[in-house]
Amino acid sequence: MGMLVINCDTDRASDGYHTFGELYHHRQLLYVALMKSHPKMSWKSLRHEDGSAHDGWFIAGMRTPKGDISYHLKEEFWFMLHGIETPEKAPPFDGHTSKNVLERIEDWVVDGSW
To answer: How confident is the model at residue 15, as a pLDDT?
Structure first.
């Protein structure tokens, strides 16, 4: 099955229940909650390991027993992660993809190594 690309404001596009903007906000807030529940394995940084940055966003990651996971979060979530390790630059990126992140989280949950 191919990808369907529609030229529109994706924050307002909806599946009939939620907009993509709402779902993305949910994902970011849930990730913040996960990081706060595991602060010793979590970190946040305004800069990638190469020093680059995205205006209005920061990178947040976790070192799980199944491998690293990371997401870009809007700056509005930065203050919610007070007390989380904050290096000047993000740790080296291991090349994980969105698919890897899903697999690592699922493996971590199923294996119960919380």
So the answer is: 73
Please answer whether residues 73 and 57 qualify as being in contact, where contact means their C-beta atoms are separated by less than 8 angstroms.
yes
- pLDDT at residue 11, as a whole number: 73
Residue 21: closest CA among 32, 9, 30:
9
Cβ atoms of residues 83 and 39 within 8 Å? yes
d(CA 7, CA 87): 37
pLDDT tens-place string over residues 3-19: 777 787 777 777 788 88
CA-to-CA distance for 45 and 6, rounded, in angstroms? 32
pTM of the prediction?
A: 0.87
Kindly give, in sequence order, each residue whose CB lies less than 8 Å from that of residue 64, ignoring residues fewer than 6 positions away: 41, 104, 105, 108
Provide φ and ψ at 74, rounded to 5°.
-65, 145
Give the C-alpha separation, 24 to 19, whole Å: 9
Residue 26 near residue 66 (C-beta atoms within 8 A): no
Residue 88: pLDDT over 70: yes
